[in-house]
């Protein structure tokens, strides 16, 4: 399709879907390890450092007296995550690592998701003022602020959970028991029947691990990517302003109303997706402690 065949609206959305990367083009394949999305790395690392700093600050300011609002909020969050972990992960030793991990993942994803509430063209306006992204070829002409709308970030986090499932499965069941379960569950059978069913059991277990990992990452990515697209479509309403006429005023009012309503609703999605990812992390790690 020629450049002239692309409408301004489509070009606007396509522009906002290209990452600041080492290639300077949009990634077309689902998995392409030659692409490094610098914007996703920057914002995910920055929000992760903010979470670590806040938790460090809360631990440093903690006291046995009457807690302040910040300490009370952190203690409430810690108690909530710990209660969930107790009901899902049976091993107390494992919870010493898994509970803080779940807490960190929960807050980290919330902060990353909250970046979607930044106005779509705010960074573009800032870059234009600084001269870093006002024209094609400038260093920051392409830049996406939302890391969880980049498939690489949620899938990377879900692969981390997959590695934890393997780690605790091997730790609790020991290497021999873990490998044995791959070939003997979920269909248990003695003797020759067990040997016949072993390849099917192994295949089903591989599919189960892959499905857990892919669904965990894709669920977060899909919801945040859809929310990002809706914000872009709402931004187009404001971009349709042509002057003080009926159509422009109507679109402008629609832009403000739709943007406000979707931002309020999106806050629920931001929190819900972080909670779901945290809970599924606990569930999958808890299942790694159990036998079929």
Order of helices and strands: HHHHHHHH
Which structural class should the secondary elements be placed in?
mainly alpha
Helix content percent band: over 70%
Provide the residue-averaged pLDDT: 88
* Main beta sheet: none
User: How many beta-strand segments?
Assistant: 0
Number of helices: 8
Low-confidence stretches: none
Rg over alpha carbons: 24 Å
Distance between the termini: 53 Å
Described by the principal axes of the CA atoms, the overall outline is globular
Taken as a percent bin, the fraction of beta residues is under 5%
Q: Could you please describe the fold and organization of this structure?
A:
- The chain has helices at 8-16, 38-61, 69-88, 92-114, 122-130, 152-184, 191-239, 246-288.
- By secondary structure, the chain is mainly alpha-helical.
- It is globular.
- The termini are far apart.
List the helices and strands and how they pair.
Layout: H1 8-16, H2 38-61, H3 69-88, H4 92-114, H5 122-130, H6 152-184, H7 191-239, H8 246-288
Keywords:
single chain, 292 residues, mainly alpha, globular
Question: What can be said about this structure in brief?
Answer:
The chain has 292 residues and is mainly alpha-helical.
């Amino acid at each position: 399709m020629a450049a002239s065949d692309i409408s301004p609206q489509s070009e606007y959305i396509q522009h906002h879907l290209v990452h600041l990367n080492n290639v300077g083009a949009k990634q077309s394949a689902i998995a392409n390890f030659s692409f490094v999305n610098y914007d996703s790395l920057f914002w995910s690392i920055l929000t992760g450092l903010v979470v670590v700093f806040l938790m460090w600050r809360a631990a440093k300011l903690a006291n046995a007296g009457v807690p302040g609002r910040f300490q009370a909020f952190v203690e409430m969050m810690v108690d909530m995550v710990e209660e969930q972990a107790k009901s899902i992960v049976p091993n107390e030793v494992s919870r010493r690592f898994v509970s803080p991990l779940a807490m960190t993942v929960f807050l980290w994803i919330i902060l990353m998701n909250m970046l979607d509430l930044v106005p779509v063209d705010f960074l573009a306006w800032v870059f234009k003022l600084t001269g870093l992204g006002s024209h094609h070829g400038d260093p920051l002409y392409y830049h996406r602020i939302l890391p969880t709308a980049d498939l690489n970030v949620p899938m990377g986090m879900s692969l981390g959970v997959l590695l934890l499932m393997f780690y605790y499965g091997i730790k609790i069941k020991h290497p021999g028991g873990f490998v044995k379960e791959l070939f003997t569950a979920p269909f248990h059978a003695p003797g020759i029947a067990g040997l016949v069913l072993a390849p099917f059991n192994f295949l089903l277990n591989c599919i189960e691990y892959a499905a857990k990992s892919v669904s965990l990452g894709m669920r977060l990515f899909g919801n945040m990517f859809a929310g990002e697209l809706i914000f872009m479509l709402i931004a187009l309403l404001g971009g349709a302003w042509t002057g003080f006429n009926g159509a422009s005023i109507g679109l402008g009012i629609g832009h403000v109303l739709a943007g406000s309503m979707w931002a309020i609703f999106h806050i629920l999605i931001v929190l819900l997706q972080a909670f779901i990812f945290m809970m599924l992390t606990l569930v999958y790690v808890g299942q790694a402690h159990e036998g079929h």
